[in-house]
Amino acid sequence: MDNLPMDALLTQIWQMVSPYVGGAWAALQRIFAETPTPLLIGIVVGLLLARVLRGVLIVAGLAAVVFVAVRVFGIAVPGLG
Fold first, then answer.
1. Which of 12, 19, 70, 80 qualifies as a FRET site for 2, CA 20 to 30 Å off?
2. Inter-residue contact 67 to 80 (CB < 8 Å)
3. Residues 1, 12 contacting (CB under 8 angstroms)
């Protein structure tokens, strides 16, 4: 596999991965075909809320790290004291 050209390597990788991708896609289509619309809306809204919450937690974590760094190293930042 080390001496294959890039297109042959990508073809070989796709042949290994494609059955799993196809199976997952078929399962997703089956779920969307059999599931009532309110549940799908709930899933989409839940995924969006999870993404927003993750962003808020990342920003809060960075703010906490900066706050601790300012306190520990004694950096003078207006508004933080």
1. 19
2. yes
3. yes
Angle (CA) 54-46-34 rounded to 5° is: 145
How does pLDDT run across 25-70, given as a tens digit for each residue? 787 778 777 767 777 788 888 889 999 999 999 999 998 988 888 8
> Quick one: 70 exposed, middle or buried, by C-beta within 10 A (0-12, 13-18, 19+)?
middle
Q: What is the pTM of this model?
A: 0.44
The Cα-based distances of 65 to 49, 75, 78, 81 in angstroms read: 24, 13, 17, 16
Integer Cα distance of 17 and 19 in angstroms: 6
Both structure tokens of 29: 């289509």
Nearest to 31 by CA among 43, 20, 21, 47: 43
